[in-house]
Structures are given as structure tokens and as C-alpha cells.
Amino acid sequence: MDVLALILVCPIAAVLAAMIPSNRWRPWILPAAAVVHLSLVALILLGGGGPAKATAGQATRNGIAATTAAAPPIAGAQTVNKVALPDAGGIVISDWLGIDPPGRVVLLLASMLFVACSFYTVGYLRDHMDQLNRVFCVCFLAFLGAMTLVICTNNLGLMWVAMEATTLSSAPLIYFKHTRNSIEATWKYLLLCSVGIALALLGSFFVAYAAIVHGLTPSLRIADLLRQAPAMDKRWLEAGFVLLLVGYGTKMGLAPMHSWLPDAHGESPSPVSAMFSGALISTAFLMVVRSQHILHVAGDGAYASRLLILLGLLSMAFAAIFMVGQKDLKRMLAYSSVEHMGILALGLGIGGMALLGAMLHVLTNGFTKGALFLSVGNIDRAYGSKTIPEVRGAVRRLPLSGMVFLLGFLAITGSPPFGPFISELIILYGTFMAGHFLIAAAFLGLLLIIFIGMGRTVLAATQGSVPVAGRRSHFRDGLLSGLPVLACFLIVLLLGLYIPVPLWGLLHHAANYLEVKP
Amino acid sequence: MKTVIAIGFQVVLLALLPPLLLGIINKTKAWFAGRRGPPLLQVYYDLLRLMKKNVVISSTTTWVFLAAPLVGVISVVLAGLMVPLGPTVAPVHFTGDLIMFAYLLALGRFFTTLAALDTGSSFEGMGVARELTFACFSEPALFLALLVLVKLSGVLSLSAMLLPESHVRIGSTASAALVLVAVSLFVVLLAETSRIPVDDPNTHLELTMIHEVMVLDNSGPLLGAQIYASAVKLMILAAFLLHVMLPLDPALVWRDRGIMLIGLVAVAGIIGSVESLMARLQLRFVPTLLVAACLLSGFGFLLIL
Amino acid sequence: MNMLILMIAAACIICSGVPGLFFRRRSATGQRLATMINVAAAAIGMAAVLFHEIPRVVAGGWHPAFSLPVGKLALGLDDVGAWFLLPIFLISALGSIYGLGYWPQRKHPTDGQKLRLCWGLMSGAMVLVVLAANSVAFLIAWEIMALSGYFLLTTEDGRPEVRQSGWVYFIATHLATLCLIVFFVLLRVYSGSFQLWPTDVTGLPAGILAALFILGLIGFGFKAGLVPLHVWLPDGHANAPSHVSALFSGVMLNMGIYGIVRVVVIAGTPPIWWGVVLISAGVLSAFLGMTWALAQKDFKRLLAYSSIENIGIITAGLGLAVLGLSMKQPIWVALGLGGALLHTLNHSLFKPLLFMGAGGIIHGTNTRDMESLGGLAARMPAVFRLMLLGSAAIAALPPLNGFVSELLIYMGFFHTLQEATAARWAAWVIPVLAMVGAVALMTFVKFTATCFEGQPRTAAAADARDPGAAMLCPMVLLAAACALVGAFPALLTGLLDHAIAAWVPSHRSIPLAGIINLWWITAMALPLLIFAVGMALWIRRWRRGTCEKSIGTWDCGYAAPGSRMQYTGSSLIQTMARVFRRILWRREQPVEIQGVFPPTAGYACNTPDPLLDRVAEPFLKRVGQMLESARILQSGAAQLYMLYILLIVLILLMIR
Amino acid sequence: MIMILNAILVLVILINLFALGTSRMKALIHAAALQGVLLGLLPPLVVKDVGTLPLLMAAVTIVLKGILIPNMLLKALRDAQVKREVEPLIGFMPSILLGAAATAMALALAGQLAPAHSPLGLLVIPTSISMLFTGFLLLTTRVKAVTQVIGFLLLENGIFVFGLLLLSAIPYLVELGVLLDLFVGIFVISIIIHHINRAFASQDTRRLSSLKG
Asked: CA D79, CA D84: separation in Å to the nearest integer?
């Protein structure tokens, strides 16, 4: 039930936000909701929701059988439909809800990151008092709610609905600044993501149809799909996987479907960018993970791995191309997200140790991106620009944000002693263990190019003396703007030096869940 | 007792003989020129006179200028103590002294050149530039020669490697190698002691000098020290050369000491005649000459490798 | 216990800069505090290293309860590590004292705190690098060292040339780290643990072993500055504050050497070609480094290049030791490794001395260009004496320390002639080393003479003065250490023998004393030293007495010699520069003289690093252009992006 | 049953070709609307026992796809006063040919794509694929915002057609969600189009290419 509560937190908060009249106090609903959300997440994760979910699955097995066997001319289906019809809510909740182990990782990330971003947002909106922020707050909460639903449901169809909902609810967030560029970014975001997601829906249908082809009862419930996968039709399954990969890959920002990502990340307010590249695309990655899991169980994992590795390296290559000589700090970070989604795809494709590394990398990358985007947000607010050479000497201008930005860059490029180093180390280790030496070589080469390209920009932005234009604004690192940045950064540092045992448990649980065939 | 005598002999020789060699060289040159030339002992007189003289030095200089000649003397003398002058082992001999030998000469060069530059005169600068440049080529030649000797003798001490028991029969490839080494050592000797064809000790145009121009500002005892030091250097290198060429026999100590002395005199004579018969090389050809010396001993090394 | 003390010392050094952050920007208290902590911690650390029985092997070590994400955090120390620890503590402490005079907080309110924070971080991290007994701990310490080194280098990041050199360092160090990460991952895959440092990894495929060696050599070679991986080194040293250059050159390069020393024995007995590679790399570095040093005008660049030369000599010695291991020649091992380790120590004595002296010159004249100096001997006598000693030491002249280590290495290579093994070719190294030695002598004569002797060429040089005691005392200590090691090398043989024995525990080692009696060096050195002292007194008396010092230098009849007519360093080396023009690859604007009565003609030449200037930078530029041209993929047209999606779907459907 | 189904599907395909061929916006929107209505009729045909639920779904579909969404687009069209799609990136005739070719290919492959024993005959999958392709064609070759939206709409329709094959598998909750998402999506998009008009004084999406590299 607490899962249901978790899902309901955000809609309720959104309604409240819509009702609060004061433009000044409305933003505070975000931190409140965030804290509640996080505490519920903690409750679920520590309260060992795993077995609970399993039992739920067991309990409703026959129920599903009924609903899924609704193919005519079975009378039973009718009755079920009849029963189910009067109120859609009347459907057994546990029939729809449940968090799989990888989902728990992403959920933790999304919730924690949102806490940081929500506090930051309060300060951010305070600087934009002239604008009405009702839509912003409502959409931001709806956005989180949709993501939570994606993570917490266990039905491929509902996942799709929720994923599309994230697109729609986040579009107004990108558009918050009302500049021509933000319009353009929003337009591309909506169009590309909707199309991509549409493909994902088709993909889900294909997967379901793969059951029909072999005369099984079709269903969109992950549990059923996993159970039936070995018996399904390979061609349709593979076609479905391709569509799911491309579809959710679009949302995840895998090249060459990534093209919306730099625009959206670059033009949206920094907390939104942080949520995007920290949580949203990780959620999309979660969807890819689930699709791959189905294929893996169906005994077709090798095929999936090929595609994932291909797209992974392709994404890293694209990112490398566009990060060298990138003048716009936020776009640079966006491409770095593309790169890291590539790394995740690579890790997932290689499997074994690398999969564990990928699970850890979801966290490390997410928090680092949070720290980076929020600090760039501060830099943007201080200089009134997010491009070099307007931005120079950030470390002098904003000691905290500038330094976090510089160190965050080192972290995200995989330097010790930060979190991403550990996760990339494990991924590399897994790659070697699996004997993919060429892939490892390509991986390292791309990492190097990216490091050089990114370093040029970051150092130019952080070092040197502050230009006159940069001194004009009165912005300084404050409590609301500085603390979230620092928090994210400290988490990254901690993950590099020490990973709590329960967290390891979570990650291992996820990796094992994806590895072993039921 | 014997060792005491040997050491005494060597020290006395080292202390007294060198100026004589200069005298012999001058005599030879005079003879070639058909002059009577200065007396054999002229250099001793010069040294004594210089010792008595007062010192005049440039106001630009520092203590280095005063120290250099003396360091030059002591380093050369210490180096001399490692080279056997005769069939008995040198007073100082230990494994690795050959490297000590080379670097003591380098120490002398270090201070001489610094002292020359201490005056801030461009002419002495030229001298320094040439001295150091040529050293860059004569050092490898010297070490290549050492390589051959070590390879032949199998020991790492000058005394041991230069003395008879480690010598080889005439006629073998080894002796051929030794001939090559001897030639290159002779070139090194000419270069190190700034003799024709590398340098002309008694030219009168500063622009063309090497060693002479470096000591241009020295006067009195300082100049004396410089002259003495170069003389000692000449002798120990000559002794080195002789040991490569002459198989001495420790059994007949005094005879071979005699042979050694004659040999030293002969070398001085040869140097003198070379100086009279040859013209000075153009400076830019000197490195070529030294590289040739390197190649000679290098080839010798190849022969026995 | 021992390890605990060392840990505390390291922790104190790491944190030494922290208190300073809480003081006002212009208060000197923070700096004094940092220095005190640093010195005290270093003293404790050195005591712990010297006066404790050190286990023969790293294994075991000290496992704190705290465990790293991957594998347990393990620390350990053996005699090899101990040998490398000493200079770290020494230079870190002396450098921080030197900083009191050279980089006082009052004069540098903006970057002083940052500098000291990173100083502590870097020194402490280097201690941890040596102590680390677990790859992940090693990598973390290593990267902290490298990054804080970067921030130290870019202390004055307001100046573009500093940022540029910092950038080069940044790329180089990241390349190094990348290679090391791969190295350790591979090692983990095949040795089965993150434990350091294995000397008995067996059953490695030859290819993997080769890969490990190459990766390790590149990774650590970058840090050590082996040619051609040295590109970051010259400008990096030149543009850092001088005591930072001292720390870099004196200690950080050693970390690279340390790594190589460890890497070559991961498999116990290394293959022969490893030794060959090391010797060739070492000789190449020594020769090129020295030649490039010779041609420099900026004296800090000159010193930096001479570091490359010394690293080359060390590597050559190490290579000989490796050869000895693989050919079962304990004498070669003893002389090669002994010489290499001793030279490492010596280099971290006289190179910091020289860099601190260079800092003194900058402090007094505010320039790095030798050719605008001159006549400093009379104006900063103390610095002159110390620098003279340093130069003599680095030119390997007896009776100073540089000579002893080079002697050992020479001996080692001479020994390759004695046994009739296949390695006789190694003896060819000797003439090259001899030439390098001669060039080194020339270089440092040029350096000392051009900076200190003759008459001042500029006003800046004319009114230079000696720096204060805070800057002189560390130099005096280092100079004394140079003289002591040079005069009494036999006292160090004990430590050296331990280190040699601990290198490959399974390997039989013989003590140095059994090969060469170093007391002879003392015997030869003492007369020189005594004579030097006597001479000093005598000269003093002489000055008072007969010595007449009235007139100027004999000008060979030229009436009006000016101070600008003195022989400059460039003219001093002109012949050599012509001989080595292919190697130097300078950028020259030659004089063009037309007509019978030519107008005023100009000549300029500078010697940038050939590899950086002619190879690395053009290459990076080219790559950048290629990537730039690929950016049309993201042209901003949504229609195009749609097409991408359609195409990728079709392509992926094709793949089977 | 199957006959009617196939007839409607053929009609739908023809509408695709028309959509590719026409240059008039209004006609395009009306075509899309008609297609929506036709699609709305399909589910009751497929589901054997026409309960209230399928009928409700059909009604919702028809209302959304046939009335609300087209009206929104028409409104967007009105305040932009665009009459016709000019200079498409690919001419109209080539577009038609491409679309026809795609449809033909899909039909040719039908045998392999759908197993013979498919209860709904062979036409469903080819139709949906050809609709997908048509949608993509509009999205990639047209420059006016509204036209691209219609492309997206056709794409969705294609997926809807495929959905017919597994009506039984898809819970109605999901179906509703899909429709709702579509509706909200088009709604938001039309708002954005409105802003595009305001900001760029045109619907030409080629102007929206300042974010590059």
C-alpha cells in the first residue's frame, strides 16, 4: 500500500500547489512533497518491499490469468471485464504496482535528487518572482509523479502511459523561460520524444503479439512476459526489442536519437536539467533494462547485447564529437549525459560485473549530473550567461559552485576518488572479464577524447580572472543555491570512497535479478 | 718497503717531471725551426718567477677566479695518483677509479671554465665555448678506450688494467684493438692538453686560442698553477697512452721505470714534432677529428666484442 | 605501530593547509601554522621510517576497518618504499619553510591559501602512494597527487602561459591515470586481487604480460617524464612557483620511477626485452633531455630538462638491474638498482636545491631569462655559493653526491663486459653516458656563468640581493646533504642493500660493499674538501694581502667593452647547437643581410619543446578540426532528427 | 465482419495516400479526422461480443480523434492563417509514390509478418506499418508545424491499428491512458504551436534551428 501512497504523494501535492495562491510561498510545496516522497521511498526500500511484491504477484496470478485470458470467445473474460468496468480504481492495485530491484535503484536516485532540486528550485523561483510559477510547480510535481509511476508499475502498457506523461508534464518546465530558444527546445522535445515513445508502444505491442503468434495468452504484465518469454516467437520479440530500445532510447538520449537532449537540457532551468539528466533519462534506462531483461530471459540476450553495445559506443562517439570545442556549458553537460547513457547501455550489454557497474553508475552519474547542473545553474545566474568566453574565473567568482563544477567535471570524467570512477572501473573490469578487449579499447579512447574536449571548456570557464560583465550581478552562493550543490557533490565523493553495505545489497540484488533466469 | 719506494717514486715523478715535458716539447719545436730555443728547464724558471710575482686580477672577478687554478692543480694531481707511472701499481687504486679519474679531470675543467667566464670577457668566453664543446667529443673517446681496456683486462681499476699481467699477446686481434685505442688516445691527449692540431698554445691572436685565452687574465702564482696543472695533465695522459702501448714487466722494476721515463720524453718529442709539422685545424673541423677518434676506439671495441 | 605513525604523519601533512583557510587573507598565522604542522609531521614520518624495523615485503601491512568500494583499503611499507618515502618528507618540509619567504601570504593573499592546501594534499598523497598496498587506494592517492599538483602548477592561473602549461600537464596526467587504471584492472583480472605489489604473478599469457609492462611504463613514464612522454614537464616546471617546481622535480618524478620499479617485477623474473626497453628509453631521455637543456634560455626550463636527463640515467640503471634479474646477474642488479635508487635520492637533493636557488634569483631579479642576468655572484653571494655546489653536484663532479650514483651505474654497465653474456651490447651505453656527462657539465657551466658571473646585463640584475633566511636555510640543508652523501656514501649502503634485497624477495642479492669499496670515494673526497676549506681561508688572507684588484678585465685592446658584449649562454653553446640542430629543432629567424652596407638586421631564436611544438600540438589541432567538421550531424532541423530515428530503426531491424 | 474490417482498412490506406498528396492544410486535417472516425469503428468489429466497454472505447476514440483533436489543429491553423503546405522537402508526387511503395511492400510481406491463422485476416499489420511510414514521411518531409503534428497523429493511428490484434491483452485502463496521453500531447503541442506563431510569426519549423552543435 505504501507504494500506492508513494504514487499519490505527487498528484496530491500538485493539486495543493495549484490551489496555493501566493506566488512566493507556493514553491515551498516542492521541498515538502520531496521530503515526504523520500521518506516513503526509504520506508519501502528499508521495509524490504521485494518479498512483498513477489507475494503480491503470487496472490494475483489467477486474477491475471482471467484478465489476460479475456480473448474471445471465453465467457470468463467478459465477466472480468464487467466486474472490472464500473470503476477503473476497482482493479486490484497490487495487480498494477510493484517495484523490481533495478527500479528500486532508480527510485532512490530520483527521490534523493528531487529533494536537492526542490530546495534549489525554491531559491531559483525566488529570483524569478516576476513570473507566475503555478504551472511550473504543478508540472514539476506531476513530472516526479509520472516518473514514480513508471518505476513503480509492473505493466508495460502503464509504464508507457506514465513515460509519455513525463514528456507532457516536463514540456512546460523547459518552456519556463519563454525565450525563442526555449520554445524551439520544447517543440523538438515534444515532437521527438512523442514519436520515439510511440515506437516504444508499438514495441510493447510487438512483444505482446510475440506471445499470440505462438498461441500463448498475450499480456503486458512484466511477470507474465518473463514467465512466457522462453516460449515466445523470437522474430517478433526481437523486432519488439528494437522498437522498445529505439523508443525508450530516444527518451534516454542514446545516439542517434539523442538530438532533443542537448536542446532541452540547455534551455530548461537548471533544476529541471538536473532532474532530466539525473532522474528522467535514468528512468528511461530502467525501461531499456526491463526490455533487455525480457529478451535475456527469452534466451536471446546475445542479440540484445549486440544492439546495446553498438548504440552505447555510438552514443559515446556522438558525445565525443560534440563535446570537443563545446562553448555552451549546459549543452556540454547534456552531451556528457548522452555519453554516460552510452556507458550504461554498454555495461548492460556486456552484463556480468559490468551490469553491476552500470547499476552503480546510474547512481553515481545521476548525483554527479545533479551537482554539475545545479552548479552551472549558479554560474549562469551569476554571469547571466552559460557560454565561454563570457564565463571565466568561475572559481574566483563563486568559490563553492565554481569549485564543485570543476571537481564535478573531474568526477564525471572518471577520475578518482569520486563515485563515477568506481562504477566505470567496475564496468571496465567487467568488460575485460568478458574478454571484450576491443570494446574496452574503444571505450577508453572515447573517454579520453571526451575528457580532453570537456576539460578545455571547463578549465576555460573556471580558471583565469573574472570578466567585468561577470561582476555585475549580485548573485552569491547562498544557502538555497549552495547547499543542494554541496550535498550532491558530497554524495558523489562518498560513493567514491565508501559505499554503504545496504546500498551494495540493493545493487547486487538488482544485478542478480537481471542476470539469473527465473 | 718496495711499495713505499714505489709510491715515493711516483709522487716525486708526478711533482717534478711535468714541466720538463713542456720544455722538451719547446726544444723539439725549436730544433725543427732550426733555433736553439729556450733551455730545457725554462718552464721551471718561469714557474718559480711566477710564484714570486704579485697578482693582478680583474675587478669583475670573484673568489672563483682565485680558486680555479688551485682546484685545477689538486684535481689533476689526485687524478695523477691513480695512473701508474711505471710497472708498479699507482698509489691510489680501487675498483672504479677509472671513472673517478675521468671526473676529476672534468672537475678541473669545470673550475677553469668558470674562472674564465668570471672575468666577463668575450674572448675568454670563446675559449670556454671551444674547450667545453671539444670535451663533449673527447669524453666519449676516452670512455670507449676504457671500454676496450676493461674488456681486455676484465678489471675495473686503472692500475690493474694498465699493468702487464692483464696484457695480451702481440698479433692477436686484441693488439690491433690496442693500436686503434692508442691512436685515439693520442688525439684525446692533444685535445685535452690543447695542442696542435686542436689548439695553438703560443699563437698571439686571442680569437683563435682555446686554453691560452682562458687563462688570459691569470697572473703570477695563478698563471703558474694553470701552467703546472696543464703540464701534469699532459704527463698523466701520456703515461696512460704509454701503458696501452708498452708491455711493462714488474719483475724488472727499475728497467721499466726507465722505459717509462724514456717513453714520456718520447711522447713529448712526438707532440713537439707534430706541433712543428702540422698546421692548426680550422676550429669547425676539430669535432670531426674527435669523432674520428671515437670511431677508432669504437671500432677497436667492436673487434674484441 | 610504525604504519600508524606514518599514517598520522601523512594525515597531518594532508591537512596542514586546512587551518589556513580559516584565517584572514592577509594574516601570516595560517602559513606559519601550516609550515609548523608540515615540518613536525615530516620529522615524525622520517623518524618512523629510519628508526623502525621495516618488514621485508609490502604484504600484510595495515588494514583499517574502513573498506573501499572495491577491495579493502590496505597499506604497507617495505624497504623500497621506505627509500622513496624519505625525500617526500624532506622536500615537503623544506619547501614549506622556503615558502615562508618565497610565497608569503601577505604578498599573495588571493592564491596563498590554495597553494598551501594543495601543497599539503600533494605531499601527503605522495606518502600514501608509496604506502598503498591496494590498487584502488593507490589510484586514489595517485590522482589526488596529480590533481593537487595541477592546482599547484596553476597557482597563478591569471597568466595565460600558466594556464597553457597547466592544460598540457592536465592531459598528460590524465593519460597516465588512464593507462594505470587499465594496468590495474588487467592486473586484477589476471592476478585475482587488488593486492599490491605482487612480485609473483604467474601464469600470465605473454601478450598480457607485455601489455601490462607497456601500460605501466607509459602510465608511470608520463609522471617520470621519460622522452617522449615528457611534453608536460618543461613548461610545467617553469611556470610553477619555484618551491612547487622543487617538489615536482624532486619528488613527484620519483613517484613515476617508484611505479616503474614496482611494475618491472610483478612477474618475478622479467623478460630480457623489458631491460632492453628500459635502458634504451633511459639513454634516449638522458641524451635528448641534456641536449635540450643545453639550448634553453629560461633557467627553470633548463633545470626541468636536466630533470629529464637525470630520470633517463635512473631509468637506464633500473634497466640494467632488470637485465640482471632476467640474466641471473646479482652484481648488475646491485649496481643498477643501487645506482638508480641512490641517484633518485641525489636528484631529490640537488634538484630542489637548484630550483630553490632559481626561485632566489627570480625573487631578486624577477626574470627567468638567463641572458638578462649576470654578475649576481657579487650581489647574491650566498645563493651563488649554493647554486655552484648544486651545479657541481648535478654535473656529477666529485666529491659530491651526483658522482657516487653515476659511478655505480657506470660500474654496472662496465660489469656487463665481464661475463660473456648476450648483453655485452649494453656497454655501448657508457660512451653515451660519458657524452651526456660532458654536455651536462657544459650546460651547468653555462647556467652558473651566465646567471652569476661577469657583469650584470640589466638593471634588474644589477641591484639584486640575497633572499632572507627562510629561503636560504632549506637550501643550506640540502647543500650540506649533497656534500655529506658525496663524501660518505658508504653510510647509505646499508639502506640501499635492504632496498635491493626487498625488491624481489625471492631473488638472491649481494651487498654493494662486496662489489665496490665506497670508502675510497671518501678517501679521495676528503683531500678535496679539506683543500677547499683551506683554500677558502687562504683566499681570504690573500684578498687582504698581496692580491691587487684595481683594474678591469683585459679587453684585448678593444677600448670600450660593455656588459652587453659579454659572451651569453647562447653564444657559449652556438657550436653545439649547430651540431645538434636536428635534435633541437629550434624556431629561428635567421639574419638576412643584403647589400654592401646592410641595414640593421635582427636575429631571434627560441627552443620550444620539439615534441610539443612540432608533433603534439599540430596533431591535437588536426583532430579538433576533424571533429569540428562532423558537427553538421546536429544541424538543428527536427526533420533530420526524425530521419535518424527512422533509419536507426531500419538498421537495427536489419542486424541479426 | 472481416470484410467490413478490410474495407475500412483499405479506406484508411487511401486516406494515407491522400494525406501524402494534398497540399491543403484543411483537407489534411479533415482527412486525419475521417481516419480517426474510421479507426474508432474498428474495435467493436474486432471484439466478438460487443459489450458496453468496447462501445465506450469506440465512442471515446471517435470523439477524440475525429472531433476534438482536429478542432484544436484547425484552431491552431486559424490563428496562423496558413492555407497550404508550400515547398515540402520532398515533392507531393514523390511522397505519394514513396507511401504507395511502402504500403505495397508491407502488403507483400504480410504473409510473413502475420501468421496465416490470424483471426483478423492479413490486412491489419500491413496497414499499420504503412501508416507508420506515412506518419514518418510527413514528419520528415514537411516543414509546417501542423503538418508534422498530423504526421505524428497518423503514426499513432498506425499503432492503434496494430493494437487491434491484442485488444484482449491491453487492459482498458491502458487504452484510456494512451488516448488521454495523445489528447493531452496534441493539446500541449498546439499551445506550443501557438507560441511559435507568436514568437516566429510563422509555422515554418525550419526557423526553429538556432540550437545546433
From this structure: 14
Instruction: Find the closest chain D residue to C642 by CA distance.
Output: D140
| Count of helix runs (H) and strand runs (E) in chain C | 27, 2
For the whole model, what pTM was predicted? 0.92
Cβ within 8 Å of A, C 85-124? 110
- Residues A354-372, mean pLDDT to the nearest whole number: 95
Q: pLDDT-derived band of residue A73, with 50, 70 and 90 as boundaries?
A: very low
- Buried b / exposed e along D180-193 (16+ C-beta atoms within 10 A): bbbbbbbebbbbbb
C-interface mutation test, from A315, A429, A465, most C Cβ less than 10 A away: A429
Contacts of D206 in chain C (CB under 8 A): 637
Range of the domain at C619: 610-654
Cα D165 to Cα A222, A235, A484, C353: the distances in Å are 19, 17, 49, 84
pLDDT score for C650: 92
Q: Determine contact: B156 vs chain C, CB below 8 A.
A: yes
Q: What is the pLDDT of residues B15-71, one digit of tens each?
A: 999 999 999 999 999 999 999 889 999 999 999 999 888 888 888 888 899 889 989
Asked if residue C481 and residue C623 are part of one domain, the reply reads no
Tell me, yes or no, if C170 comes closer than 8 A to chain A by beta carbon. Answer: yes
Give the amino acid at C249. S
| Strand (E) or helix (H) holding C136 | helix C135-153
Domain coordinates in residue numbering, chain B? 2-304
Query: For residue A76, what pLDDT is reported?
Result: 32
ipTM field:
0.90
In sequence order, the β-bridge partners of residue C605 are C588
Residue C547 or residue C193, greater confidence: C193
DSSP β-bridge partners for residue B56:
C548
Q: Which residues in chain C have their CB less than 8 angstroms from residue D89's CB?
A: 639
Centroid of chain to Cα D120: 21
Chain B residues close to C384, C-beta within 8 Å: 62
Residue D105 confidence class, pLDDT cut points 50, 70, 90: confident
User: Is residue A110 packed enough to be buried (19+ CB in 10 Å), middle (13-18) or exposed (0-12)?
Assistant: buried
Residues in chain B within 8 Å Cβ distance of C414: 147, 150, 156
> In this structure, is residue C439 part of a structural domain?
yes
- DSSP structural state of residue D24: B
Q: Please state, in angstroms and rounded to a whole number, the distance separating the CA atoms of residues C626 and A253.
A: 24
Residue ranges of the domains in chain D?
2-207
pLDDT in tens, C90-102: 999 999 999 999 9
Mean pLDDT of chain C: 89
The answer to whether position C383 is within a domain reads yes
Angle at C109 between CA C105 and CA C110, to 5 degrees: 135
- What's the total number of domains in chain C? 2
pLDDT in tens, C302-344: 999 999 999 999 999 999 999 999 999 999 999 999 999 999 9
Rounded distance between C-alpha atoms, residue C463 and residue C12, angstroms: 41
